[in-house]
Write a structure and sequence with these properties.
This protein is α/β, with parallel strands linked by helices. About 35% of the residues lie in helices and about 20% in strands. It has one domain: Alpha-D-Glucose-1,6-Bisphosphate, subunit A, domain 3 (Alpha-D-Glucose-1,6-Bisphosphate, Chain A, domain 3), CATH 3.40.120.10. The chain contains five helices and six strands; from the N terminus they run H-E-H-E-H-E-E-E-H-E-H. The N and C termini lie far apart (about 65 Å).
Amino acid sequence: MKILPGVLGRAYGEFLKPKTIVLGGDVRLTSETLKLALAKGLQDAGVDVLDIGMSGTEEIYFATFHLGVDGGIEVTASHNPMDYNGMKLVREGARPISGDTGLRDVQRLAEANDFPPVDEPNAVAISKSICVTLTLITCSVISTSKTSRRSSW
């Protein structure tokens, strides 16, 4: 059974009840479209979505933990061919969600697709900004290095 990304976002939100999650996606052509649908489903579940843009799975893990949010979703098919796509789900503390730790529950909710009506559509934030990435950088620990410039001509 195929599950639409918006329904999966709603199921994730209804199951985990997160306040805020991070959302990212890889370079696949379908990633941005899937992220938008996921964000809408999450939003319908009352979740604030912090879209960190194009990212790898490791950046979702890092941002989830470092920002102290309640979870994260990376749109990716990992090492699979470019015409595939999927999602990796994590909960607070950047802990992966597997079949034994909630993935099957999210799947059941998504397959049932029986959610309460949305009280206030678009009532939560979807933030998309490079400022999110900049908060992950500790500038004081970056040192300048002296480099010599040599002309090779």
